[in-house]
Design goal:
Order of helices and strands: EHEHEEEHEHEHEEEEHEHHHHHHHHHH
CATH architecture of the largest domain: 3-Layer(aba) Sandwich
Helix content: 40-55%
Number of strands: 12
CATH class of the largest domain: Alpha Beta
Number of helices: 16
Number of domains: 2
Length: 346
């Protein structure tokens, strides 16, 4: 049986390439513009030491739930779209769901799994995450900067999918606590994301700035407080020192922590700007902020906690994306952002 990849953007093509390298048949469910490029040129994934190319005859491309249903049944489906596409996509997923036994949720943030489980059923969704930074250059062309791996929650389908991805050259780690997996990945997604989007600065520059470093640590500590309230441990992600990050944010003095994180964050991202920066500067008003800083702030409110830094960053990104405040108010202006943060703290 083939495997379906829904949303062949950066992460989707990374997953599809692993499946193809493992000898799997792959069906890509794409929007019409991306589908045309894939059908004409195939896909190309550029790794640090080599490039992998698959011609258009080696993958099947579909553009609708009906086509996806007819191309099945599938071994599994991997969902790799942006979180803001999920609400509109849900009816199509429900229509096509009989074609696969499980949907692997690889979306960013901590909101997608509950949404998918409510629509498809608890056992129909397998939470997961990708820790490898991948950048999309053009439809069908992506760059893998630092291969790391994939995390999958425990599920009856997990062993087969783990073996499949590992045959394709991907490191896979399995987790007993899916919420801990998603929330730990969220911690890493917060690093230099909203600040980079608002300031139009790379994360390494943000972590070199004293005031911005303090802001970054405040949002991480708020997220860690929410995880403690939810009784969620920080887990070790594939290729990511997530536990060391959480320990350092909690215990290390700033004089030691700042140079370490400045180096790690800059080196970890390579030349890739955070996806939130890409979303905001695309200019179509859609970002993943509600699944990231927005989710931290919303969960904190539900638990009776305070997360003013995450709430501020979520609000500012939303307002810039909606055109309610000009992007130039914060672009290359760290003092403007820090003044807003100080005001939010009273």
């Amino acid at each position: 049986m083939p495997t379906l990849v829904i949303g062949p953007g950066a992460v989707g093509l990374y997953v599809a390439t692993a499946l193809l390298r493992a000898g799997e048949a792959v069906v890509l469910w794409a929007r019409p513009r991306s589908a045309a490029a894939l059908q004409q040129r195939g896909l190309q994934v550029r790794f640090p030491a080599h490039t992998v190319t698959f011609g258009p005859q080696q993958v099947r491309v579909v553009t609708s739930p009906g086509e996806a249903l007819r191309a099945g049944p599938y071994r599994a489906a991997f969902l790799t779209v942006k979180t803001y596409h999920l609400p509109a996509l849900l009816p199509a997923l429900q229509q096509a769901a009989p074609a696969w036994p499980v949907l692997v949720d690889l979306l960013n943030g901590v909101t997608s799994t509950a949404t998918l489980q409510a629509a498809l059923g608890p056992q129909a969704v397998l939470p997961g995450t990708v820790t490898t930074p991948v950048q999309r250059l053009a439809p069908g062309v992506v760059v893998v900067e630092k291969p790391r791996g994939v995390g999958l929650a425990q599920h009856p389908q997990t062993p087969a999918l783990q073996a499949l991805l590992q045959r394709g050259g991907v490191t896979v780690r399995v987790y007993a606590n899916p919420a801990a997996l998603k929330w730990t990945k969220l911690l890493t997604n917060l690093l230099g994301s909203a600040t980079a989007a608002l300031l139009d600065w790379p994360p390494a520059r943000i972590y070199a700035h004293g005031g911005l470093f303090a802001l970054e640590m405040a949002q991480l500590r708020e997220a860690l407080a929410v995880m403690r309230a939810l009784d969620l441990p920080v887990v070790a992600l594939p290729g990511v020192p997530s536990r060391a990050l959480a320990w350092g944010v909690t215990h290390l003095p700033r004089a030691l922590l700042q140079p370490i994180l400045r180096y790690k964050v800059g080196r970890g991202r390579g030349e890739k700007m955070p996806s939130l920066h890409q979303d905001l500067h695309r200019g179509d008003g859609q970002t993943e902020i509600d699944a990231l800083q927005g989710a931290v702030a919303a969960t904190a409110r539900r638990l009776g906690l305070s997360a003013p830094t995450n709430a501020l960053l979520a609000r500012l990104v939303r307002e810039v994306a909606a055109g309610q405040i000009p992007a130039e108010r914060f672009r290359h202006r760290p003092q403007a952002l820090l003044a807003a943060w100080q005001e939010a703290h009273g």
